[in-house]
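tool_log.txt
---
The assistant was asked to compare two proteins side by side. It first ran the structure predictor on the initial sequence, then on the second. Raw inputs and outputs are pasted verbatim so the downstream comparison step can read them without reformatting.
(1)
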Amino acid sequence: MLDNISDKGFRINYYKLQNQNSKSEYYGKWYGRTHMLGTAGINELARQIQSRCTVRESDILAVLTELSDAIADILAAGYQVRVPGLGIFHTTITTGRADTKDEFTDDNIKKLNVKFRAERPQTQMGNRTATVLKYCKMPVFVEYTPKKKNKKDDNSDGTPQSGG
């Protein structure tokens, strides 16, 4: 599925979407939204990594399998996790409000979240671009016409359907 993806350039699929919110000052205006062709799982990620180095796919799979648990352990200890060239994983919370500082308690905390910030080093010209986009010299924008989703097409384990 992902063979020779670097040979195809940096492809950005998008579709056109009209603002349907009649209360918005931008009602009726058109926007572009990106469209992902699917989700690559750790097997595809391991194959891509193996094609760039001498480490075997099975060894890469072992590391990737443990990565999420390792990140969770470090986040649980109160730290953020920086993966060089990729970005930083960190926790955030969603809370209700309180009228005073003393009235705010743990009960106001509604949800724990994990967020990711892509690494964005500054270039010599002062621009910031996510490191993961470093090979995106000239993206190819391709208009995509969304198709109706089939329930059987949804693969919850993150592995793409064959032929996609």
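(2)
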Amino acid sequence: MSMPLPETTPQQPAEPAPPRPRSPMALVVLATLAVGYTLWAAQSVILPVLLAMFFALVGNPIIRLLQKLYLPRFLAALLVVLGGLAGSAALAVQLAGPATEWAQQAPQQMRQISRQVQALIKPVQQANQAAENFARAAGGEANLKVQVVRTQLDDPYKVLVRTPKLAASVLAVVLLTLFFMIYGESLQRNVIALLPNRQQKRFTTEILRSMEREISRYVLTISVINTLLGLVLAGVLVLLGIDLPDALLWGTVAALLNFAPYVGPLIGIVLMLLVGFVEFRDPLAAALPALCYLALHTVEGQLITPIVLGRSMAISPLMLILALMLFGWLWGMVGLLLAVPLLVCVKLVLTRLDGMHGWAKLLG
């Protein structure tokens, strides 16, 4: 006798997961504004930390090299920090004299430059004067407006108040840089230990190590390229007949400005034009420093940096301009210095995360 087979119920298809709720656009805008205001309001705390991380990334490859020579990490980090402080102090002593001299002679030099520029644009001034005379004759003297010029006296107490704050900020950056160099790896291990399973720990460790090495390589490479650009520009200025201390001053300024793409070189060209008008009487000779700077920057930006870093570190020019505008508005000159490294960090993070490759391509 055959047993009846049990009836099989057809399997119900799995219900699709409900879509994740999205935040209203108003909340997103308010959160963005809140984050921006926090970054601006807390810049006295945030900027020393970011600068210390930036300098630590510059020194990490050197520390690894010293560790291969069997130096402890603490001693290697201390040597790197002391070497950086010694180099900065020597450079500051070397440049203090020319910088002070240029600052004291700035009014007289600007008047000299204005006379040279007036001689070049004298026909345009004559045409403007003729137009003003015609407008004055047509409208009468009653249409003339009175300008009130207000002067503001310098308050010496502001300098006394700002100096301790500046010294405290510099000391905080130095100490934080040393601590990041010494305890950065142990801090990463402690953070990774908080993850729940071994697979996540291994994956996170590989991502953090690769990102730290790539960012350190990028920051150190850019710093070396900018330093060499400043030295080459200083040598060119010496060959043009400018004194060595002044040439070193403007080479250092050009190296610092090169950390801010597009904006920095434009400022550098204007400064080189001013230097040329101060140092040379002939208009053609006055344009030589700016032309040499433009040629050096073109070779560096279009040939040397892409070859050394490759396409993996390339950033969209539009995104660069937007980042420079944003961080420059938030943090001033320090923001211009940190804008590109921060943007590169964001791109590397997006490249490593699943589902974020489209955003990484957008930045590239």
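---
observation on (2): DSSP finds 13 helices and no strands in the chain. The CA atoms of residues 100 and 175 lie 29 Å apart.
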